Amino acid sequence: MMKKRFSIIVGLTLIAALAYAEGERAPQSQPEGESYFTAKLGYGVGGTSPLPIPAEIREIKGFKPLCNLSVQGLYRIALSERWGIQPGLRVERKGMTSDANVKNYGMTITDDEGGTVSGRWTGDVRMTADMIQLTLPFSAAYRCSSRWDLHAGLYMGFLLRHKFYGEVSNGYLREGDPTGAKIEIDDQPQTFDFSEDMRNLQIGLTAGLDYRIYSRLGVFADLNWGLNNIFVKDFTTITFNMYPIYATIGLSYSLK
Amino acid sequence: MATWTKRVAVLLPAACLLASCIQDEPLNAEADILSCDLSSDKDILVVQADTAMAITSTTEKIDINVQLGADLHARAPKFHLTEGATISPANGSVHDFSEGKSVRYEVTSQDGKWKRTYYVSYVSYELTTSYHFEDYVLPSNGKYQLICEQVDGRLMLNWWGTGNPGYSLANSLATPTEYPTAIVPGGRSGNCLQLITRSAGVFGKMAGMPIAPGNLFLGSFNVSDALRAPLEATHFGIPFRQIPTTIKGYYKFKSGDQMTDGKGNEIAGKDDFNIYAMLYENTDEDGNHVVLDGTNSNDSPYLVLYGKIEGQGEADEWTPFSFDMKAMNGKVIDTEKLARFGYSFSIVFSSSLKGDLFTGAVGSTLMIDDVEVECK
After folding, report:
1. How far apart are CA A225 and CA A245, in angstroms?
2. Which helix (H) or strand (E) segment is A138 a member of?
3. Are the C-beta atoms of residues B244 and B373 closer than 8 Å to each other?
4. How many other C-beta atoms can be found within 10 angstroms of the C-beta atom of residue B288?
5. In whole angstroms, what is the distance from residue B326 CA to residue B298 CA?
6. Is residue A242 part of a domain?
7. Poorest-confidence range of A157-161, A165-169, B206-210?
8. Using N-to-C axis directions, what is the helix angle for B2-18 and A2-22, rounded to 10°?
9. Which of A92, A75, A181 is nearest to A131 (CA)?
């Protein structure tokens, strides 16, 4: 996974460098104050995390983003020479796997057919959060120069698929609350799955910058910061809110 | 340029990480008595090697087994607690435990948010030798019965152990008589013992335990081991000062329809039940406490006597059974050791013959009543 991620970053950087070498002369042909369409292909790195990290999480032992590709189309509507608004449509994946050690952490150990035991877990947790969503970003855009653009705004995401699952091992569960029966689990993990407890709609803040290398080709970096808990309100097993926070880098291509 | 993108790609997640550092470790929320330190009671204990008496996580009543006639007016048991927890009245304080008085201790967790209450008594009742399966109590969580014997009007809760606490993990919605082990009406007179092999559900299957046979044994069940090492969770034996010779009683049995193996696969054949009994040395050569469990109850070098039912099978009506205890490992009973409670005795009932291998038929039903242990 790390290897895959690395090769994507190297690949994007290479393409950008080649385009740069080839397109030294191009940017001044970019007309200002014009409305146009841009397509973007990106790769996201980030996580679904509580903020701040609650005291129940004692150690984060490992973290891996999944293959978080995104494809989006944006339409920039010029309002003045420098300002514009930028609605868009994006399909993206936000996924990650983490390994943590926790203490007295709300947990329901489950299986596919409804057997469950709930309580407080102390030990190792490996979890995967994986979401595929249709996102509507809406930003204000500002042109700094013929090469640089900034934008900031809001997004609303509709989850097409949502999964949150994992396993616990090397620890013990106190059934119900910390005074309940103590159930030890060794290195043979037991599973949990909270996929059904996730909300379908996410909202958040988006901000980023674009750099034009060539008249049409550019690179971009965005930060998408989720503002609402990924779980529904009546889900109480995990006692803190978790937010998806992902940075995306990639290539853009403008149609003018 | 490419450096810029890289910088952004590195700086943004780094900023997120900085906003979310690992916090200081929270204080412990557990409030357990983990074990009793009975070194001040060593002289009066039934099993003198058991001064560090382990307490399971589901225990609410702690009975300290002491010799008959011991002076209990001023005893000062000490308790080993969850780290940081506090106990009231004070640890090691002196109390009057005479005439069956119990002392209520309250343990408060390190974070102050959780409390557990324990009732501690010193008991000197000897294990009885006839069992009619009339009495049970429902613990504070009300999930399953605690099967007990009545001696002089006092309910002895710590004699019979069952796997019911383990089943509660597989089926948290079961009512007390839906558990594998329960006291029910319909005995030869009054109530009787009902053992039914239940499905442990997908949860049990995942844990390598597709069935939950009904079982009852003299000893205790440590639910902490129920998933990790279920056979080690059954701690057999109660200190005993007599020599058991024959085990007698009455049973009814019906096999469940479909046998399954330890992986939950269907196999041919019929289920059968099992009853066996053992007497073993409860202290090793170095003076350490010995407890037999489901892994070694039929081949331990500490076994002195062992007996097992033979030729059982289905029976619709109450049918008598009887089997004799036979010497094991070439050992003879040391009468002096016997008098000092140096041996522990257990009878084990199971509604599936190979229940210890999680092989059996869901629905196999064993009813037991009026069990007598003949001694010499």
Report:
1. 5
2. strand A116-143
3. yes
4. 10
5. 12
6. yes
7. B206-210
8. 140
9. A92
Q: Which of B3, B4, B16 to mutate to test the interface with A (most CBs of A within 10 A)?
A: B16
ipTM, 2 dp: 0.72
Third-level CATH fold of B126-375: Jelly Rolls (2.60.120)
Q: Which pLDDT band, with edges at 50, 70 and 90, does A1 fall under?
A: very low
| CATH number for domain B29-124, candidates 2.60.40.2340, 3.40.50.150, 3.90.1150.10, 3.30.1700.10 | 2.60.40.2340
Q: What is the number of alpha carbons within 13 Å of residue B288 lying toward its C-beta?
A: 5
Residues B22, A177: C-beta atoms closer than 8 Å: no
A103 domain-assigned: yes
Quick check: B169 pLDDT over 60?
yes
**DSSP letter string, B87-107:** EESPTT--B--GGG--EEEEE
Judge contact between B357 and B298, C-beta under 8 A: no
Q: What is the CA radius of gyration of chain A?
A: 22
CA distance B46 to B341: 6
Tokens 């090697």 belong to residue: B49
- Among the partner residues B23, B141, B203, nearest to A115 by beta-carbon distance: B203
Contact A89, A134 (CB under 8 A): yes
Q: What are the tokens at B44?
A: 């009066």
- What is the value of pTM for the model shown? 0.73
Collapse the DSSP code of A17 into the 3-class scheme (helix H, G, I; strand E, B; otherwise coil) and give the result.
helix
Q: Which residue has the tokens 């996974």?
A: A1
Interface check A222 vs B, CB under 8 A: no
Rounded CA separation B59/A181 (Å): 9
Residue A138 and residue B52: Cα distance in Å, rounded? Answer: 67
Contacts with B226 from chain A: Cβ below 8 Å? 183
Q: Where are the domains of chain B?
A: 29-124, 126-375
